[in-house]
Amino acid sequence: MRFTTYLRDGTPRLAVVDGDAAVDLAADLRAELARGTDLAAAGRAALASAAPRLPLASLAHAPLVPEPGKIVCLGLNYFDHAKEGGRDKPEYPWFFFRGKSSLVAHGVPGLLPKVSSKFDYEAELAVVIGRTVPRHVSQADALAYVFGYTCFNDMSVRDFQKRTPQWTIGKNFDATGGFGPVLVTADELPPGAAGLRIQSRLNGQVMQDANTSDMIFSVAETIHLLAQCLTLEPGDVIVMGTPAGVGQARTPPVWMKAGDTIEIERIGTLRNPIAAEG
After folding, report:
1. Domain 71-276 CATH class label
2. N or C: fewer beta carbons within 10 Å in the chain?
3. Contact, 8 vs 24, CB < 8 A?
């Protein structure tokens, strides 16, 4: 089953996808997950009903989870990406956080900041947690707590990212975290969303082309490792890192300009045009 989040009168609403249309379902994905709502059953009921169909092409999207409690990101989670950055394969994930104000919806411009021109793209798989993950959950049980998967563009301001030993500042500029537009429930994908093609295109040119099976730390292992430290809650998001081919690693470097497309096989296509801040 597929879900999307759109704006109705300026307010985010969750909808279930029906082909090229959507059926309004609830106020907020995170809130429904926290309540324990059986969204699959609610979605099936909505699809079987005579409720109005909203053409997907006409919707103004919102970030898939508008206000996640936590957005945990991984750096260097593909070996070739670590290598192109001059680093060895990490022995433990390079975790960092994003804030909700950095998120931007499908179709909404990512903002090239006034203070930098080194604005890079990163195609990534994103995981949405469906139920509270017990502390110290085993790797074997970890995937039972995943609700679904979607696309993420971890747009990065590279010079600010390198100003400090930790990456937080370069990863949290406003409107730099493309998120959506469609969530595919875990039951419709291979375990851990393994074996999916992940690709980014900048102005139609393929820049990254890899497979989620190339991730160093799988979704299950990542959840297991995070659960050793913190409680993952419904609506939390894990962003699983990017493959090789980022702009800063190219000669000469390639920085984002107007119109990029991020695509992950069987999940959908996330598009964000690029606009100058202000």
Report:
1. alpha beta
2. C
3. yes
Q: Are strands 205-211 and 182-185 parallel, antiparallel or unpaired?
A: unpaired
CA 91, CA 190: separation in Å to the nearest integer?
25
Q: List the structure tokens of 93.
A: 């994930």
With vertex at residue 42, the alpha carbon angle to CA 184 and CA 11, rounded to the nearest 5 degrees, is: 75
> Would you state the pLDDT for residue 88?
81
CA distance linking residue 140 with residue 81, whole number of Å? 27
Would you state the structure tokens that stand for residue 23, as one six-digit string? 């059926």
Q: Which of these, 237, 256, 277, 270, lies nearest to 155 by C-alpha position?
A: 256
- C-alpha distances (whole Å) from 147 to each of 14, 34, 158, 183 are 14, 12, 32, 9
Alpha carbon distance 236, 192 (integer Å)? 16
pLDDT digit string (tens) for 211-254? Answer: 999 999 999 999 999 999 999 999 999 999 999 999 999 999 99
The domain segmentation of the chain, as residue ranges, is 2-58, 71-276
Residues of the chain with confidence (pLDDT) below 70: none
Q: How far is CA 244 from the centre of its chain?
A: 17
Q: What letter would DSSP give residue 190?
A: S
Integer Cα distance of 29 and 33 in angstroms: 6
What is the pTM (predicted TM-score) of this model? 0.97
What is the pLDDT at residue 170?
A: 98
Cis peptide before 12 (omega within 30 of 0): no
140-159 pLDDT per residue, tens:
999 999 999 999 999 999 99
